[in-house]
């Protein structure tokens, strides 16, 4: 029996309500098309089959190109959807509830991320909120190597740049990392801004919370 048929059988078994025991393989198949529109069901199964066979885990997306499953753990998935976009999903346990936190990042060329939250059965969870760090938390002016005037000029540029974020340390204590994306600026501006900007990261509880009515 191929892994694809095994996965389909597992999906049917788990759909009976044993949601908390579901593997990330099953979860990838169950992700709503609205959240992962580039990948239909069969390509997702292809990617899982190849990944679990320790092969290049690619599946054809709706554009006719290939998407790649880059990493899969017991609670995490990372997919490169296209040359300019990627998707990460992390399964969290918050206050006894299973929550899926999915980050979609697009680079055009600056990278910008957004995060969507879902319940254990992939229903949108509007009660979840992300606290993106304020700009001052990223800013550390390099006045020792740059003039005050140049620092102020760079600060104004950086404030117009988008923020990208990613999951880190997913196999132990997950952390959320934020950084300001300067990819759309000139090489000189990017080099100077590297001296003035720092990433911000911390545990899930620092940035993600449930907002009660």
Task: Please describe what this structure looks like.
- The chain has 213 residues and is an alpha+beta fold.
- The protein is 27% helix and 32% strand.
- It has helices at 3-14, 24-30, 41-52, 135-138, 148-158, 187-194, 204-207; strands at 58-60, 66-72, 76-82, 85-94, 97-107, 111-118, 128-130, 163-168, 175-180, 200-203, 208-210.
- The chain has a six-stranded antiparallel sheet with strand order 1-2-3-4-5-6, covered by helices on one side. It has a three-stranded antiparallel sheet with strand order 8-9-10. It has a two-stranded antiparallel sheet with strand order 7-11.
- Helix 1 crosses helix 2 (24-30).
- The longest helix is centred in the first third of the chain and has 12 residues, at 3-14.
- It is globular and about 55 Å long.
- Mean pLDDT is 90; it is low at 12-20.
Question: Can you tag this structure with a few keywords?
Answer:
alpha+beta, 213 residues, six-stranded antiparallel sheet
TL;DR?
The chain has helices at residues 3-14, 24-30, 41-52, 135-138, 148-158, 187-194, 204-207; strands at residues 58-60, 66-72, 76-82, 85-94, 97-107, 111-118, 128-130, 163-168, 175-180, 200-203, 208-210.
Tally of helical segments: 7
* Average pLDDT: 90
Largest sheet: 6 strands, antiparallel
The N- and C-terminal alpha carbons lie at a distance of 49 Å
Supply Rg.
20 Å
